[in-house]
Amino acid sequence: MFATGIENSIPTINNGKTRVDQMEASQHYRRWREDFDCIQEIGINFLRFGPPLHKTYLAPGRYDWEYSDLTFAELRRRDITPIVDLCHFGVPDWIGNFQNPDFPQLFATYAAAFAERFPWVQLYTPVNEMFICAVFSARYGWWNEQLRSDLGFVTALKHIVKANVLAMNEILKRRPDAIFIQSESSEYFHADSPSAIGPAELLNARRFLSLDLNYGRRVDSEMYEYLMDNGMTREEYHFFLGNRLKQHCILGNDYYRTNEHRVFADGHTTSSGEVFGYSEITRQYHNRYRLPIMHTETNLVEGPNGDEAVQWLWKEWANVLRLRNVGIPTVGFTWYSLTDQVDWDTALREQNGNVNPLGLFDLDRKIRNVGKAYKKLIQDWRDVLPASSVCLAVPIVPPSETHWPAARTQRLEASAANANPPAEMHNPETA
């Protein structure tokens, strides 16, 4: 699955007073048809994309589907398969933030409403980068609730992951063969000195929390104590063990140069730049969860030479091929995003209007060098990889084939399988 994305981030800053809307900043709301043209110019068939949650989910039971109806109808007409991103770093003002215990159920209701309105959609990322969302909102104090505490982080994390799990359940009721592609940040923390080994080990254990809970995996003992000490109850923990849906999932993971960190003795961290790289860190995640992999985000600034992003694309693609060559089922790659981003250099914490040249296209919708390179990469590899795959093909139904008899049969078979799962899936002890 060669993919790109149109980011629908909507975190709030300034104590909730200011909404940072990346679709607005990238001019997507008024240029979405041009954006879809750009996708087809590259030869991309898969798009990480979703409606802006704050503009669509107006109140309990109240939705504004106008934008979604227009854009998803056009994606379907063009036979571009969306990977639907329902919640990206923020919630509507009336929900507040991720400390709200009502958020999981409210979000699940929204996911159900979306799945009912767009039954032809099969691929979902219900909540984007759950770990990063909780860290930036409640541990670093950057977004939304802007807290800086372990209690705030655990509260945000349990609500975010529960929302994701409940949304998956609701979508499966309406689309039994739905596939969920987690887009989660893949992290690693390097100890700067012997005295930093302890803090680094703690952070390297904490990085797995969102996916452990999402996939119903028992957390490590130190992390169990951490969760219990910071507000998670046994009942809440057992909810995750009892809702194991990993059989419907692809482990999508994101990697940027900023995903590796240098840890010092006092616990503070800085970016280490690329040390291990995508393939080694992804191997750690795959060893833990044993799921097919998709590289769901990467990019690099196009610098003064004009080839910096092109070289990064080549390097990340080489990492993807390395994973496949050692037998790790890797089913997709994503350059993120389609167009340049705004204020990514401050992680959306400030509204400076800085255009970061990270996209396949600039904000005038002119193709960048990396866009040309990605187009050629897709042309070169699209027909080669399926023949050399080490795993079964992902059973994806393109929009144009939704009503084909084979697609209907697949949904019926998935519905029957969901109603009668294997015995071991009922027992969290075997997770």
Overview of this structure, please?
This protein has 431 residues and is of the alpha/beta class. The chain has one domain (2-430): Glycosidases (TIM Barrel, Alpha-Beta Barrel). Helix content is 41%, strand content 16%. It has 15 helices and 17 strands. It has helices at 22-25, 28-42, 53-56, 66-78, 103-117, 130-138, 150-174, 197-206, 209-214, 221-229, 234-241, 278-289, 308-325, 369-381, 405-419; strands at 2-5, 12-13, 18-19, 46-49, 57-59, 62-63, 81-87, 123-127, 179-185, 188-191, 249-254, 260-263, 269-271, 293-297, 330-335, 341-342, 355-356. The strands form five sheets. The protein has an eight-stranded parallel barrel with strand order 1-4-7-8-9-11-14-15, surrounded by five helices. The protein has a three-stranded mixed beta sheet with strand order 10-12-13. It is globular, with a radius of gyration of 21 Å. Residues 424-431 have low confidence and may be disordered.
Topology overview:
Elements: E1 2-5, E2 12-13, E3 18-19, H1 22-25, H2 28-42, E4 46-49, H3 53-56, E5 57-59, E6 62-63, H4 66-78, E7 81-87, H5 103-117, E8 123-127, H6 130-138, H7 150-174, E9 179-185, E10 188-191, H8 197-206, H9 209-214, H10 221-229, H11 234-241, E11 249-254, E12 260-263, E13 269-271, H12 278-289, E14 293-297, H13 308-325, E15 330-335, E16 341-342, E17 355-356, H14 369-381, H15 405-419
Parallel strand pairs: 1-4, 1-15, 4-7, 7-8, 8-9, 9-11, 10-12, 11-14, 14-15
Antiparallel strand pairs: 2-3, 5-6, 12-13, 16-17
Helix pairs in contact: 2-4, 5-7, 6-7, 12-13
